[in-house]
Amino acid sequence: MSFKITDKVSWVGKIDWELRRFHGDEYSTHRGSSYNSYLIRDKKTVLIDTVWSPFGKEYVENLKKVIDLKEIDYIISQHSESDHSGALPFLMQEIPETPIYCTKSGANILKSQYHRDWNFIEYKTGDTLDIGSSQLVFVEAKMLHWPDSSFTYMTGDNILFSNDAFGQHYASELMYNDLVDQAELYQEAIKYYANILTPFSPLVTRKIEEVLALDLPVNMIAPSHGVIWRDNPGQIIHKYLKWADNYQENQITIIYDTMWNGTKIMAEAIAEGIRQADPEAAVKLYNLARSDKNDVLTEVFKSKAILVGSSTINRGILSAAASMLEMIAGLGFKNKKAAAFGSYGWSGESVAIIQERLKEAKLEVIEPGLKELWNPDEDGTARCMEFGKTFAAKL
Ligand code: FEO
Predict the structure, then answer these.
(1) Atom of ligand 1 nearest to the CA of 163
(2) Residue 269 burial class via C-beta count within 10 angstroms: exposed 0-12, middle 13-18, buried 19 and up
């Protein structure tokens, strides 16, 4: 499959409708994904990025139907992660001498991943490649989200090939942002940002400002996953600037795990208290053992505050809660308030442990945690409601 984006540029990637897990088991992809690869035909022929290795053979066979591989003058590897470089070993068997343009770090990573001595040509920000009537301009985008990440801007067609940035794990044959369901598109775009780019938000802001300062016309943003932004491509840039700026909505999210429903009863009573204190705030509850972790992290990203609950088990906390706290710490959310709660039977360490982990994750714990013995009775439920009210009042 291939399709023309402009007279010079064609999409030659792979739509992966079956994908349900990405980055090992770390990222859920309910709507599949795509690995976007682009072929530019000007006086010179250029291939930007490839696809994930399981599709490497298929990709090369498909590419052969579109072009004689020997006509490819340059390959650009904007990012060496295997979802974009995985087909290189298959491709380079056919055209081993073709130069691969990438950042210095990209060359090092590709060498370490594939152990092949390909013809690497390193680029830095501002370097250009003349390909005929258009020119390609390279922009390093370190840590967005790998050290080697980079963008390529094509003059004439005014396309920003942005690699992972502005992408979505979203399989669609419709291919363009204006053709797909907008709620689905933005759900996947914000989930992508929340789960992958949150730790690098200050760099996102700086890089976007740097690119905007160049005042380049951008007709399209062509990322390496999901649909191409052709209708008002600035919309996703402005969203990224908002998301990178300690983003939050008027939302409070309660996440918990529970053994025999004591902590669940607490969660629901706390939610009721918050609702009474702040009827405008969206209050959402997730049982962590039964919820998709990346969907929950997206909700945490949107929240101004979170409450984390767990029963006590073996002097610790339940594994789904522990795993979520680890992921929250790793993503480095900023400007979020928090508190802990949990039911217990005898020793009752869970609340203190959660509180400590929230602090370590740099969330601001604004209310001492609440413990309830076994299942909360009427008084216990009232204490939970009061806890929710006090918490909401402090936001
Ligand atoms: Fe889509 Fe960082 O690879």
Answers:
(1) 1
(2) buried
Strand-strand pairing, 45-48 and 38-41 = antiparallel
pLDDT, tens digit (0-9, with 9 covering 90-100), for 36-61: 999 999 999 999 999 999 999 999 99
**Strand arrangement of the beta sheet that strand 120-122 belongs to:** 3-4, 9-11, 38-41, 45-48, 74-76, 100-102, 120-122
Other CB atoms within 10 A of residue 183 CB = 8
Cβ 53 vs Cβ 33: under 8 Å: no
Q: What's the pLDDT score for residue 111?
A: 97
Going by C-alpha positions, the residue among 279, 327, 277, 283 that lies closest to residue 306 is 283
- Residue located via tokens 């067609």: 157
- The reply to whether the predicted model has a pTM over 0.90 is yes
Domain 3-243 top-level CATH class: alpha beta
Q: To the nearest whole percent, how much of the chain has pLDDT over 90?
A: 98
CA 212 to ligand 1 centroid distance, Å: 23
Residue 166 has pLDDT above 90, yes or no: yes
* Rg of the chain over all Cα atoms, to the nearest angstrom: 24
Provide the CATH topology of domain 252-393: Rossmann fold (3.40.50)
Per-residue burial over 59-71, b = 16 or more CB atoms within 10 Å of its CB, e = otherwise: bbebbeeebeeee
3-state class percentages of the chain: helix first, strand second, coil last, to nearest 5: 40, 25, 40
Cis-peptide into 84, omega within 30 deg: no
Which one of the listed residues 79, 123, 148, 247 is annotated catalytic? 79
The mean per-residue pLDDT over the stretch 67-80 comes to 98
Domain spans, the chain: 3-243, 252-393
Within 6 A (CB) of ligand 1 lie 79, 81, 83-84, 145-146, 164, 224-225
d(CA 151, CA 142): 10
> Which one from 16, 42, 49, 81 is the annotated catalytic residue?
81
Residue 37 near residue 49, CB atoms below 8 Å = yes
Please say if 130 is a catalytic residue.
no
Does 282 score more than 90 pLDDT? yes
Mean pLDDT of the chain: 97
Strand partners, 373: 344
Whether residue 1 is predicted with pLDDT greater than 90 in this model: the reply is no
What is the CB-side half-sphere exposure of residue 273 using CA atoms within 13 A?
23
Alpha carbon distance 380, 378 (integer Å): 5
Total residues found in the chain within this entry: 395
